[in-house]
Records
---
Amino acid sequence: MAKASNKSSTKNEGKLKRLQAAPLVTPTDLKPAATRDISASMNAILADVFALYIKTKNFHWHMSGPHFRDYHLLLDEQATQLFEMTDPIAERVRKLGGSTVRSVGHIARTQRILDNDANYVQPLDMLAELREDNKTLATSLREVHNVCDEHRDIATASLIEVWIDETERRTWFLFEASRSGDSTGH
């Protein structure tokens, strides 16, 4: 009996070593093309969300002027919301069997939201830039939703729907906060 147990133990150790050396492939019922397409699309979203998070924090830290407190708090709230998106995005990619962005460099190579390294940006220009970036993110999220629909990935699509709503809310708040009070909006 001890021989059979040792043989089984050795076999399990070999299997465990092979699994540890294998790539990070999570089992899924989705086709490999779905994993490839959705993971790539979601990684681009992840990079954009990180880029928008950093830009929002940058503007939060460098806000000035008579509406400082209101804008400062608004941007902090929006940055928190963006950061809270990152883990669910990355975990969804992993659940599908994909891998996620691995570094700041990887984010920089993948992001489509442009950085702003200017020493000074007018407060209303900050709000306008973030508003446009959020509109761009909403468009990208809709495009990824279409990819999910093509591959019948309902779970990712449902998450994206919530993020679209949150992104539209950020866009709305940025628009309303920057209005001059006249009927034309600016």
---
Amino acid sequence: MKQVKIQIPSLVENIRVVESFIDNSKDTFHIDDDIYGNIMVAVTEAVNNAIRHGNKFDKDKNVLLSLQVEDDRVKFEIEDEGAGFDYENLLDPTAPENIENPGGRGIFLIRHLADEVEFNKDGRHVQLTFLLPTASDDDEARHSTINGAETPAAR
């Protein structure tokens, strides 16, 4: 298992640092393009939430971001120094009464982009897991069409 950690002050400008961290991790650990976009959106959203809602933009409080790469998955952990929140009782942003609300979609989005989402420490810590495609997944996708004809794997 390979692990990398960074710590950033709670400034919105530091989202750029997180984006670079993800880009560098993609190259270093050969993270597949198929999940790269999901990782970029979900992790930056989680860090943004930690800065805004967790640490309340307090530059003296930090956000810790770590990455663990295993054979079949990539895990990102984001932790802030805030008071936490009730992650089990969030409003449904797709409910008609919430559609017009400008916020409230971040956790919803994160839960749909990551394969697994786990909150700890009263919501101050979130672990996002992204499953890596296996060699057999790649082979199946590659062999699902032959000369433009659909094969059983593509159905």
